Amino acid sequence: PYFLRAEGQARSNEQLDLALHSAEGPLGVSDAPDRHVLCEAFLAGAEQSGIPRNPDFNGATQDGAGYYQITTRQGRRSSTARAYLKPAMRRPNLRVITGALASQLVFDGKRAVGVAFRADSQVRVERGLEIVLCGGAINSPQLLQLSGVGPAERLRATGIEVVHDLTEVGRNLQDHLQAQIVYRCKAPVTINDDLRSLWRKAGLLARYVRRRSGPLASAPSPVGAFVTSSERAASADLQLFMMPLSVSRPGVLDTFSGYTFLMNPSRPESRGEISIVSSDPEAPPSIRPNYLSAAGDRALMIEGVHALRRIAVAPAFDPWRGEEERPGEDVRNDDEILD
Fold first, then answer.
1. What is the rounded distance in angstroms from the CA atom of residue 162 to the CA atom of residue 145?
2. CA 8 → CA 1, 11, 88, 221, 251, distances in Å?
3. Parallel, antiparallel, or unpaired: how do β-strands 238-243 and 223-227 relate?
4. What does the pLDDT read at residue 230?
5. Which residue(s) pair with 165 in the sheet?
6. Proportion of the chain above pLDDT 90, given as a percent
7. What are phi and psi of 29, to 5 degrees?
8. Displacement of CA 181 from its chain's centroid (Å)
9. Is the pTM of this model over 0.90?
10. Are 40 and 242 spatial neighbours (Cβ–Cβ below 8 Å)?
11. Tell me: the pLDDT tens digits for 121-136?
């Protein structure tokens, strides 16, 4: 019911099961605004490798391949700020303070009664009847530890007075580690090619301005799939993606025509830890994700790479598939993939 209250399916979207979707919520949800030729090849290749089509990953079943819906409205990101905060800005009981860094929670005994923060070169404290801490997976445990809530030994080592010895704070960190396979494309149809050409970049901009469509209105990975790796899994435990582009490192496109397959375990078993290394709130905490420490994650990463390669070598990619650039044809067996 809470997802239905949040979701605002665009009127132009393909009709979905009304029992599972809503058009009335503040969070804009749009169909993929682009049907790139390589994305269509991915869907066809998935079918050819035994993964059926699925028009709605948030429907009755999740397994299958299809286009991802994205949280946009009329071609613009439907962020939390745009969907929820902006409409509430005129409320008399709301004050937003920007350019502020929370430094610690203020406690009365073991009850949180306020927040100390740095703003305008000063330390300020706001008090209230209720404190809602929502700093995300990294900053929430960091701020709790800075405030004296966490493993006592770690807190004392950084000179912080212990308010409550709670060893779990910062533990149980979970993250989706992705593996990528990059292929060279035999034809200049990738977004790499679009962005290397002044005219093609202008064309992308024109599509966005005129119709709010094309890659500028889309997500980096428009298509993907959910796969159940074995009969032992209760539901899809692998998520696959395809990008009609390739990057040499985050934010930097390859200089050749390329496209990328990606995968990650849906429910990783590896557990990491976050812990402060200083009493200074500006000092980044230690982040130890412990990726692949669980045998199940290692097995799923290997199976996911095999699943991607089965799609990559399907007949649907014959017109486009060049050589495997990364990790390369010499990485074949399970040990090499894991390495």
1. 9
2. 13, 9, 17, 21, 30
3. antiparallel
4. 85
5. 150
6. 95
7. -130, 125
8. 18
9. yes
10. no
11. 899 999 988 999 999 9
